[in-house]
Amino acid sequence: MVEISDRSMAQVGERGGWLRAITLSLVVTGAFLLQGCLAGAWVAMVAVDSTRSKDVAFEPFEQSWVAQRDQLSDAPRHPKVKSVAVLPVEGDPEMGERLATLLQQETALRVEMPVSIETGIVAADIPSGKTNDADHSTLAKEVTRNLGVDTVLVSRVSAVAPSHPSDWGRKAEGSRRLYLYLMNRDGQLLWKDELPFTMATGSTASQEITVQTDLSNHVMQHVRELRLDELGYLPKKTLRTPRRIGILTR
């Protein structure tokens, strides 16, 4: 009887050991599978993120200000703006080209884009951010006279927060801010604004068409909200309907 009891106890012990071993194996296998899934998800996320060339997310405008017509001494002489010079944007050369393209496509203005500011202009360091209203006024007078335009768009891009890689090995992202100043030929400020945006930079070619479209839609919506088109500062381009040509018949 004692032997039978010992055998039963041994069998129970062996069965319990097998159950513990199987349970432990399942736990370890599950952990490895879970780790593999997480690793796979991370790899997929990084791969998708790396294929995005340059993502720019534009946020709502801030610190907007517009001069009304009765605030300008030259209102009777210049009822409507017809031309603008878009100066190079310090801190983001591509942004200057985007702004010029935007104004060419969306407004009725004649757009001039000088490659550089002449070194003889005293206020050539305006984009550095260390200037005042007098410097803006001086630059506007010089540029409009030299290029024969009604207004000048002075702008700069500065980094609000330094770019840094985000978690999980994704691309570097950085917060930036675009400062805009539209001045007339008398050095008066017509419009100033600040556009915060976030940029994520990758290694592939930039999808410039998407960035340009997003910027154009974002800016023109803001133009309508501020009534810049109605004031004549940024008149919208009117769609021309094709003329019908009659067909001569006998």
Secondary-structure map:
Elements: H1 2-51, E1 54-58, E2 62-66, E3 83-86, H2 93-106, E4 110-112, H3 133-147, E5 151-165, E6 172-184, E7 189-201, H4 208-226
Parallel strand pairs: 3-4, 3-5
Antiparallel strand pairs: 1-7, 2-7, 5-6, 6-7
Helix pairs in contact: 2-4
Textual characterization of the structure:
With 250 residues, the protein is of the alpha/beta class. The chain has 2 domains: 1-51; 53-226, 3-Layer(aba) Sandwich (Rossmann fold). Helices cover 39% and strands 23% of the residues. It has 4 helices and 7 strands. Strands 1, 2, 3, 4, 5, 6 and 7 form a 7-stranded mixed beta sheet that branches. Helix 2 (93-106) packs across helix 4.
Summary tags:
Rossmann fold, 2 domains, seven-stranded mixed sheet, 4 helices, 39% helix, disordered C terminus
CATH architecture of the largest domain: 3-Layer(aba) Sandwich
Radius of gyration: 32 Å
Biggest sheet statistics = 7 strands, mixed
Order of helices and strands: HEEEHEHEEEH
Strand content: 15-25%
Mean pLDDT: 74
Percentage of helical residues? 25-40%
Number of helices: 4
CATH class of the largest domain: Alpha Beta
Report how far the terminal alpha carbons are from each other.
127 Å
Number of strands: 7
Query: Structural class, from secondary structure content?
Result: alpha/beta
* Low-pLDDT residue spans: 39-53, 119-129, 241-250
Question: How many domain units?
Answer: 2
* CATH third-level topology of the largest domain: Rossmann fold
* Overall 3D form: elongated
